[in-house]
């Protein structure tokens, strides 16, 4: 049985840590203030559904993968790419190449 996915502050905080991206970068990407993001990450209910969706999309863009509750297992977050691929992407970007985060 799969429940509707609820994007919560603890997931946002964990996703940002996994993606190694700053609040400033996410704030710029989403149009949210750094304070709004911090408050949400600490359990605040200060973001609209649209703002939560923008925050989730931004974190996914930077490599977080959010997992809904399913079949008796809890929700969570993990890195979108395995460590080996992340290392190759970093090397390629360091050489001036761009990468497509959707591949």
Helix and strand topology:
Elements: H1 9-19, H2 23-30, H3 34-41, H4 49-61, E1 64-67, E2 76-79, H5 83-94
Antiparallel strand pairs: 1-2
Pick out its properties.
Lambda_DNA-bd_dom_sf, XRE family transcriptional regulator, two-stranded antiparallel sheet, mainly alpha, globular, 103 residues, 2 strands, 434 Repressor (Amino-terminal Domain), 5 helices
Describe this structure in words.
The protein has 5 helices and 2 strands, in the order H-H-H-H-E-E-H. It has helices at residues 9-19, 23-30, 34-41, 49-61, 83-94; strands spanning 64-67, 76-79. Strand 1 (64-67) and strand 2 form a beta hairpin. The mean pLDDT is 80. The protein is mainly alpha-helical. The radius of gyration is 15 Å and the shape is globular. InterPro entries: Lambda_DNA-bd_dom_sf (IPR010982).
